[in-house]
Specification:
Layout (H helix, E strand, L loop, with lengths): L4 H13 L2 H8 L3 H15 L4 E4 L2 E4 L1 H27 L7 E5 L1 H18 L5 E5 L2 H9 L5 E5 L7 E16 L10 E2 L7 E5 L5 H9 L7 E6 L2 H9 L4 E5 L9 E7 L4 E9 L6 H16 L4 E2 L1
Parallel strand pairs: 3-4, 3-5, 7-11, 8-9, 8-10
Antiparallel strand pairs: 1-2, 5-12, 6-10, 6-11, 6-12, 6-13
Helix pairs in contact: 1-2, 1-3, 1-4, 2-3, 5-9
GO molecular function: DNA binding; DNA-binding transcription factor activity
Keywords: DNA-binding, Transcription, Transcription regulation
Protein name: LysR family transcriptional regulator
């Protein structure tokens, strides 16, 4: 099948700007040219991708399905062109991988230090993305591998369990619970808690494991990012529950194990089935695996 790159480019512009005139302005083309490219793309695919509305445009089901894949494909092509343009054909090949942000917080700095020591000239790109995005990155070959969470099988991908990571309590250092060797979930009743609504689904995992215990918890704040929740904790506004790798001792908060029950998540390595990684890719994946398994509180697989 011949790829209509100009049509894909026009589709992305229309979808991301919300209209044909805005897309024309972005691409420095006439609105007629954008309409022509869109019509040609839709004809080649045999489906309608967008519909005009009184407020602009709306993506069809086919358009919604194409959008993330088109973004990854165009981004990969743009990055490849940038590498060739900037460094020439003899430049070292970038190694790109995906990593969940809450895992990257605990391993990325030491990982890249070891990579630099072993491969001083190797350029590395990290996508700190959600589990769903990491799957798409590896499937689209934008990323060589992904460090993510256990999830349903994805087409074309192999998944290897790395470790189980417990959820822990993060509280101000002067808090009454800070010096405890461990805290039971029931003891958090009446405490002001900060919920973190991450795309990784940590809140859902906690709610499922706690069962009736969750009814007594007081979630008085909600943040979208772990860093924001930890900032609220440092200022004494509440306590939060985070995966162990997401918080470090130097973050200015106390980290206390939680039990009764113990709640954890599975960290996995995602690769493409039937493909042998290159030397540098294998080194980075193996080093990431070793760092995760050696991290305090985690249970190696």
């Amino acid at each position: 099948m011949q790829i209509d790159f100009l049509g894909i480019q026009a589709f992305l512009a229309v979808a991301e700007t919300g209209g044909f005139s805005q897309a024309a302005a972005r691409l420095h083309l006439s609105q007629t040219a954008i309409s022509h490219r869109m019509r040609k793309l839709e004809d080649s695919l045999g489906v309608q991708l967008v519909v005009r509305t009184s407020r602009g445009i709306s993506l069809t089901q086919a358009g919604e399905a194409l959008l993330p894949r088109a973004r990854h494909a165009v981004r990969q092509l743009e990055e490849s062109c940038d590498v060739v343009r900037t460094h020439g054909q003899n430049a070292p090949q970038w190694v790109t991988f995906g990593c969940l942000p809450t895992i990257a917080a605990g391993i990325l700095a030491p990982l890249l230090e070891q990579v630099r020591a072993a491969h001083p000239q190797l350029p590395v790109r990290v996508f700190d993305s959600s589990p769903a995005e990491i799957v798409e990155l590896v499937q689209a070959r934008t990323a060589a591998f992904g460090v993510s969470l256990d999830q349903p099988a994805a087409e074309g991908l192999a998944m290897r369990l790395v470790a189980r990571e417990p959820f822990v309590l993060a509280c101000p250092r002067g808090h009454a619970l800070a010096a405890r060797p461990a805290v039971g979930w029931a003891e958090l009743r009446g405490q002001p808690l900060v919920r973190i609504s991450l795309p990784s689904g940590n809140s859902a995992t906690i709610d499922e494991k706690l069962g009736p215990l969750r009814e007594g918890l007081q979630w008085i704040y909600e943040a979208q990012r772990t860093a924001v929740a930890l900032k609220l904790v440092r200022h004494g506004l509440g306590l939060t529950i985070v995966p162990r790798l997401a918080v470090r001792d130097e973050d200015g908060v106390a980290v206390v194990p939680l039990h009764e029950p113990e709640v954890s998540r599975a960290i996995v390595l995602l690769t493409r089935q039937g493909e042998a990684p290159g030397e540098a890719e294998r080194f980075i994946a193996d080093t990431a695996t070793q760092l995760i398994r050696a991290a305090p509180g985690l249970t190696p697989a």
